[in-house]
Amino acid sequence: METTSALQVLTPADKCWMDFIRSRPEANIFHHPAWMELMREGYGYSPFILALTDADGSLCAGLPIMKVNSFLTGRRWVSLPFSDYCNSLHRDDPARDELTSQLVRMLRAGEFKKMEVRWSLPGQEGIQQVAQFVLHTIRLDPDPAQVSKKFKRTHLQNIRTAQERGVTVELGKELKHLRAFYDLQLETRKRHGVPAQPWKYFELLWRHIISKDMGFVLLAKHENEIIAGMVYLGWGRTLIAKYAASREDHFNLRPNNLLFWEGIRWGCQNGFAVFDMGRTEIENAGLRNFKSRWGAVEEPLYYSILSRKPIQRSNGRLERIMRSVIQHSPLWVCRLSGELLYRHVG
């Protein structure tokens, strides 16, 4: 196919974009207009789609983008904030390459100063690649037992341990289930020393995603007490384990193992082809090993930075200071810091 340079700017809800993402098997919830609307309403970002059309006017490639305007972190385009990755969608490699060329031309023309694409773009002048994360995915099967054959013995034992010790899992799609998860999330984020996303964000997540049957919450309970939870997002062929939280004093019950298994099992039984365990920092060997033991395939996750200036690497000093402050402060500090800072770091 011979691509053209016809580039359009579409709104996320444009029918052409919806038709295109429905036609692409690699599309997921991050390409859906509901996810972009959540970002717009929650953090004030401006969403749009850069779409490439071929000679007959049909979409052949596209990329969702958010304009982030922050007095702390500057003006930039991001594809997409608070998304582990956002792969460009394309009908074939020439369309992908042409879309990339169009982005480079826009950079040179000064239409933006910096753009972060959370995926690997073809190498062209002006594109810098960053490798900080890996991605773990599991190929699903209609029969969950076939998938579990690839689990390492440790995970199988921990699943049985959770069940034998009386841990149960509840699937919920109501706002109260998300509220229960959020309370756990606050504790977990404080323990890790990172700000917690605002409750408003989770309210919007329920309104735009979960209430539209594109996600759900799994809550692990022991003796009627909620001890762990996971938020799953699912659209297209991919089910994503997006958020996880747990109580430290109940780790011995292995609720997280059971929550992963129930999510995998649900994905198998509901027609999903891929179970996405999310990104992991390269240096986090423990978590990488944990995910790999589920039979997950680990792949490098490259981010592409379009900028005329070299990438400025952070030495992490500010993050270390903030981590210590949050860990040694009351819970409200974790919550308030998230409300103040999250929109600037998307």
Describe the overall structure.
The protein has helices at 15-23, 33-43, 93-108, 144-148, 153-164, 175-192, 199-208, 255-269, 285-292, 317-327, 331-345; strands spanning 6-10, 46-53, 59-70, 74-79, 89-90, 114-117, 127-139, 168-172, 215-222, 225-235, 238-246, 274-281, 297-307. It has 346 residues and is of the alpha+beta class. The chain has two domains: 6-134 and 303-312, Aminopeptidase (3-Layer(aba) Sandwich); 141-177 and 198-295, Aminopeptidase (3-Layer(aba) Sandwich). A hairpin with a 3-residue loop joins β3 (59-70) and β4 (74-79). The two termini are 36 Å apart.
Give a short summary of the structure.
With 346 residues, this protein is of the alpha+beta class. The protein has 11 helices and 13 strands. It has 2 domains: 139 residues, Gcn5-related N-acetyltransferase (GNAT) (Aminopeptidase), CATH 3.40.630; 135 residues, Aminopeptidase (3-Layer(aba) Sandwich), CATH 3.40.630.30.
